[in-house]
Amino acid sequence: MVGFEVGAVPFNPDGWGPPDSSSSSSVLSNHPTNVPFAPFSRSEKLGRIADWTRNYNPSRANNPRNPADAVFDFTGDDSFGGGITADEDASFRLVDGKPPPRPKFGPKWRFQQQRQLPQRRDEEVEAKKREAEKERARRDRHYNQNRSNAPRREAAAFKSSVDIQPEWNMLDQIPFSTFSKLSFSVPEPEDLLLCGALEFYDRSYDRLTPKNERRLERFKNRNFFKVTTTDDPVIRRLANEDKATVFATDSILSTLMCAPRSVYSWDIVIQRVGNKLFFDKRDGSQLDLLSVHETSQEPLPEAKDDINSAHSLSVEAAYINQNFSQQVLIRNGDKVSFDEPNPFANEGEEVASVAYRYRRWKLDDDMYLVARCEVQSVVEVSNQRSFLTLNALNEFDPKYSGVDWRQKLETQRGAVLATELKNNANKLAKWTAQALLASADMMKLGYVSRVHPRDHFNHVILGVAGYKPRDFASQINLNTSNMWGIVKSIVDLCMKLNEGKYVLVKDPSKPQVRIYEVPGDAFENDYVEEPLPEDEQVQPPAEEADGGEATAPANEAEEKEISPEA
């Protein structure tokens, strides 16, 4: 049996571990002299194994060690002379081999954060830009859809008000952009004649609110007349008396003055007779009706038989406007009569409350314009009579306008009016122009709504507001000088034409008007009655009543054609 030699084991009476070599009497035979104990590898933990007599101090700063490992930590012990510093020992783990945690604070972290912050800021800015681009693209897409729908709606519903015949010769084409630069000042007009009778306005309607609304009545027995210029016996008489050079009505002049605001097509017949110029409208023209939602971006139904189509709403609005102008009056028989009776009514016939003011404006040194202007009522203020014009705005369906009158009219009337100015800019401008032409002291606007959105026969009056025409004109940006500048330019253009008949047509799809030369017998087959002979045109006032009676059946028939349709 092979023997095993253990060797000499020195005894250290002073403590743990081997004795000091200097004090040790025995020297190992295989051990080099004067070589201290020291670890030769970072992975070898030589020296004292454990010390359970040491106290663990958890309050040491940046102490990443587990309390259970404190008995093996001799980095803070001065008696440990192994040559391992505290910094070197901090990276050593006896049991846990996981990488050391990244410090949350310190110069290195601040340096990295300074490098990353601009990058993060740029990413946030880029993200915001991308979101803004998406939102802008969505709005543009929605806007372009509305824009793309408008021409299709225009092509389908906005057809020309008159059929352009092949034999008509187009003489000129005027874009609306040229109208905006025109300006012309006219002196104050003079009244040549006042005809008709007016009833007084009922001021109790000014106190109406949606809570105490009133039902809109129907006035089937009162006749309304829409007589064109050349069929007016008073204008014929003034023309034969050579009172002026240009003759028109307030509805025709307001259409010309507010032409840049129009969207629907319209037409005006122009007759050059000698040195005189007559602006007429065709029988059954679009000028006899009132447009609804003409300047709105919300498309109306295209089917003509739909109660919310453009044509149906125009007829309904004309019907509402006529009845409203008679309901808000004091119907007790007290009237204000003028120089002559209604020139279009027969004796004993019940006519609507209206007064015709034949007024003359000076356009040039030798050029005057005479127009028939209308006012619907009169009111006494401080013992002075003031003329009123009465018109009604109508609500057919709050879904189209986005504003419910029954909820907003009493508390937010300005918002309701602003919506109407956006959707019916041309109609309100024409009413204002007519009030300015007639020199009305006040224009009353009624708010009339359907009893139910699907019932276009029954209506209620929700409120009435009054405005001074000049103040309202400035509020809607209607310039009087520009209005007369448009009229003056068209009159100068027509006075250069030869004698004959012409028609001024607003293009249904473009903001421009065209002038066509038409045959002399154009539109005559649409008239109910032939014009009066020349020997009946120039008559004394006493005999002229016969002429007025002769034209009355025609106008009455015309009105009876409009009323059933309404």
SSE blueprint and pairings:
Layout: H1 86-90, H2 107-157, E1 169-175, E2 190-199, E3 214-215, H3 233-240, E4 246-249, H4 250-257, E5 267-273, E6 276-280, H5 310-327, E7 335-337, E8 354-364, E9 367-375, E10 377-381, E11 384-395, H6 398-401, H7 405-408, H8 413-423, H9 425-437, E12 442-452, E13 455-467, H10 469-475, H11 480-495, E14 500-506, E15 512-518, H12 534-537, H13 541-565
Parallel strand pairs: 4-6, 4-9, 11-12
Antiparallel strand pairs: 1-15, 2-7, 2-8, 3-13, 5-6, 5-14, 8-9, 10-11, 12-13, 14-15
Helix pairs in contact: 4-9, 4-11, 9-10
First-to-last CA distance: 137 Å
Q: What structural category arises from helix and sheet content?
A: alpha+beta
Rg estimate, integer Å: 48 Å
Please indicate the percent range of residues in DSSP E strands (runs of 2 or more): 15-25%
Residue-averaged pLDDT: 77
Helix tally equals: 13
Q: Can you summarize the main beta sheet?
A: 10 strands, mixed
The gross shape turns out to be elongated
Order of helices and strands: HHEEEHEHEEHEEEEEHHHHEEHHEEHH
Strand order of the largest sheet: 1-15-14-5-6-4-9-8-2-7
Q: Report the count of strand segments.
A: 15
Helix content: 25-40%
- Unreliable runs, pLDDT <50, ≥5 residues? 79-84, 109-117, 148-157, 526-566
